[in-house]
Amino acid sequence: MAGDSLNDRRTKFWIGVIAIIILLLFLYFYQPFETYLTAHIPHIHFSNVVFWFASLVGVVGYVIAQWQSFKTQIFRSGGELRVDNLLFDTLQASILIAVIFAAGATLQAVVMLGEHLVNRGPIIDPSFGGKLLAIVLLLILALLFCLLHYVVRAFRDGWTSRRTHPASARPSGAD
Fold it and tell me: Which of these, 64, 52, 54, 79, lies nearest to 13 by C-alpha position?
């Protein structure tokens, strides 16, 4: 019985996620929505919508991660506050949000490079080189944040080796 309600909640969650994605795709291609946004929000353009979306996902993700962390560490601990776990949760959430921001900026840079290539101007020029360099630097930044996330997780959980040493894998009487 309990497994059925868990499966129902998962199904409803994924249906909700798919509905939100369909709504966002509809709003992306709906011209009056673009007109409304560009008229009422200063400095927003649909040419940088990928980064705005990644920023929105990052902020909402950070709020949800913090709420889950506080709910777990403060409300369910029975009055005992474990600051070290709360600190590591906050640090990991912040680093993952930085990965989302860097990935969104990288996707936006790829879109800008694609627009540059489609415009039929000179292909190899300083603008092309700058956009290509931005993509490379943003990818490096995203990878560094990802590695930093693994380092923080290793400090939190303790470092465990995934491979066994060949000498320890042999039985003691095999020599």
Answer: 64
For residue 144, give both structure tokens.
Answer: 């560094």
User: Do 137 and 110 form a contact (C-beta atoms < 8 A)?
Assistant: no
Q: Is 44 helix (H, G, I), strand (E, B) or coil?
A: coil
pLDDT tens string 61-102: 888 888 888 887 777 766 677 777 788 888 888 888 888 888
Contact 151, 92 (CB under 8 A): no
Q: Compute the chain's Rg from CA coordinates.
A: 23
